[in-house]
Write a structure and sequence with these properties.
Blueprint: H1 2-9, E1 12-16, H2 22-28, E2 33-37, H3 42-52, E3 73-76, H4 99-110, E4 114-120, H5 130-141, E5 144-152, E6 163-171, E7 212-214, E8 229-233, E9 241-243, E10 265-268, E11 271-274, H6 277-283, H7 296-305, H8 309-322
Helix pairs in contact: 2-8
Length: 343
């Protein structure tokens, strides 16, 4: 009976556009219970299922809002799409035809206390700032106070120069006035801290070519929270740049070509190579016991599309401080992901 009572005290959340479960990792660390997840990509569904023993529902556009359980927190890393702006009004109807509309219709029906959204940095400037205004006005019209800020992953304990916009919205009737985003932590990590040993790395990760040029000292790092390019492959285009392991790594990408596509190339023990899938998992702050897909290229795409778990945790910690009811009855030591175990 005691365990049953504790479960009743947990806050609940849903995981939309779930990918491989970054949001879920973050909120479960605070004692939350995921009551619904949705992800259309079959490969991501398989990876999610491997780790959470649950296969997300498919295409959210085909799922009715009344089929989704009620919840306290709605999480979504929704794709950024152009909105059709009529110029007459900004609000719920302006989001039709976009995936954000599906977030909005679920919010309209369930009215969760907290919305926790993530998107690319460019969302703030997308379509001359009109897209973000539609989002803000839509959430406002649905009864939410909206906060947003661009944060960099390398400021929160993982060596990746990933910048994303994070939107936190509270239901207006809660009268939350003291929410603030986390400030950069003092400690930092560099790429060297998350590397596997070369001898255990898949040989396919190594790049052996005659057009490799190293032009800078890898240890001459002025700001370890920013990437330092020290060389190039071929002409040095996207996926052809070589970086120092004594600084932050570049942003992982789900797309792009080049010899070091999706991860960038690094000079490691006098060899040039891409990062491994496990190293990519560490660059997103996923725990060491997270099961990776066997296909390396699928893993690269999934982590490039994913979220930085430690940043989500830092933000959610601020959410719980501004709105203690969300987990005031949870007494749980948070096991932080790999990259937050700072020295």
């Amino acid at each position: 009976m005691k365990n049953q009572k504790n479960n009743q005290n947990k806050f609940t959340f849903i995981d939309l556009f779930a990918g491989i479960g970054g949001f879920r990792l973050a909120l479960e660390a605070f004692g939350g219970k995921c009551v619904f997840s949705s992800e259309w990509n079959k490969d991501s569904q398989k990876t999610y299922s491997l780790n959470f023993k649950e296969t997300p529902s498919g295409d959210i556009t085909k799922i009715k809002e009344n089929e989704i359980p009620s919840h306290n927190v709605l999480c979504a890393g929704f794709p950024c799409q152009a909105f059709s702006i009529s110029g007459k009004m900004l609000g719920f109807n302006d989001t039709r035809g976009t995936l954000f509309f599906d977030v909005a219709r679920i919010v309209k029906f369930h009215k969760p206390e907290v919305l926790f959204l993530e998107n690319v940095k460019n969302l703030v400037k997308h379509d001359g700032g009109k897209t973000i205004e539609v989002i803000k006005n839509t959430l406002d019209s649905l009864g939410y106070d909206v906060n947003l800020k661009v944060l960099k992953s390398s400021d929160f304990g993982i060596p990746q120069a990933r910048e994303r916009v994070y939107i936190v919205a509270f239901r207006k009737e809660l009268k939350i006035t003291d929410f603030s985003y986390p400030t950069p932590i003092q400690s930092h990590k560099i790429v060297k801290d998350i590397l596997e040993k070369n001898e255990v790395v898949d040989p396919k990760c190594f790049i052996n070519r005659e057009d490799i040029v190293i032009s800078k000292d890898e240890k001459n790092v002025k700001d370890p929270r920013k990437p330092l390019q020290i060389g190039k492959i071929n002409k040095g285009g996207q996926g052809e740049r070589i970086y120092s392991i004594y600084a932050t790594g570049i942003t992982l990408s789900a797309y792009g070509g080049g010899a070091a596509s999706k991860t960038g190339a690094y000079y490691i023990d006098k060899k040039i190579r891409k990062l491994t899938p496990r190293e990519c998992a560490r660059l997103q702050g996923f725990p060491e016991n997270y099961t990776l897909p066997q296909n390396r290229n699928i893993a690269y795409k999934q982590f490039g599309d994913s979220v930085s778990v430690p940043v989500l945790m830092e933000i959610f910690d601020k959410i719980t401080k501004a709105y203690p009811n969300i987990n005031s009855k949870i007494k749980k030591d948070i096991e932080k992901p790999y990259q937050l175990k700072l020295t």
